[in-house]
Structures are given as C-alpha cells and as structure tokens.
Amino acid sequence: MAENNAGGLYDPYVKRGQTGTAEQGGSRTENLQNEIDSAVSQMQRNITKVSERGERLDSLQDKTDNLATQANGFRRGANRVRKQMWWKDMKMRMCIIVGIIILLLVIIIPSVVASKKH
C-alpha cells in the first residue's frame, strides 16, 4: 500500500512529513556521492595497506633467506671447528700414549737387562 507524502507519490528516500523537492533530491545525490567518495577513499587506503604489507612480506622473505644462508655458513664452520678439535684431541692422546710407552720402556728395559746379568 503506497503512502502519499504531502500529496506526492511515495518515495522511500524521503522521510515522512517531508516533501520531495528538488533541493532534497540534490541533497540525496550529495549524500550518495559522499558515501561513494568515502567508499572509494577507504578502498584506496586498503589498496595502499595491501601494497605496504606486500613490501613488508618481501623484506621479511629477504631477511629469512639471509638468515638461512648465515645458518648454513655457521653450521659448516661449526663442523670444521669440531673436526679440528677432534684431531687436536687425538694428537694429544697419541702423544700421551707414546710418552707412557717410552717411559715404560725406559723403566722396564734397564731392569730386564740388569736382571739378565745376575
């Protein structure tokens, strides 16, 4: 059922008790244009934010790649140092073993030779 708005046709955009004049039509168009402008500006801000986010993600990806490269270099260096320390430890152990053998030979050989003379 259509209502009459002060003698005019029913207009859902005109509030009750107001008449649909040209001034209100312009006001309605201005309101719609303002809403469209605000929506466009919001979309532009969103696009800018998405672009900035993409740049930050690219920067983060670069940093991640650099960190992975540094981690691989560190791992290789750590393995090299570990092997060097193992060889150093082995050399020290071999020197101690040879020293003990020489010491035992110095003690045992003269005592064996002395016991054979008697």
From TrEMBL:
CC annotations in GO? cytoplasm; endomembrane system; membrane
Keyword Magnesium assigned: no
Q: What are the transmembrane regions?
A: 92-113
Q: Which SUPFAM superfamilies match?
A: SNARE fusion complex
Region: Disordered, residue numbers? 1-30
Q: How does it sit in the membrane?
A: Single-pass type IV membrane protein
Main location per UniProt?
A: membrane
Instruction: Please list the residue ranges that the record marks as compositionally biased, kind Polar residues.
Output: 18-30
One GO biological process this protein is involved in is: vesicle-mediated transport
Q: Which UniProt keywords apply?
A: Coiled coil, Membrane, Protein transport, Transmembrane, Transmembrane helix, Transport
Under the heading InterPro entries, the entry gives:
Synaptobrevin-like, Synaptobrevin/VAMP, V_SNARE_CC, VAMP4
Question: What's the protein name?
Answer: V-SNARE coiled-coil homology domain-containing protein
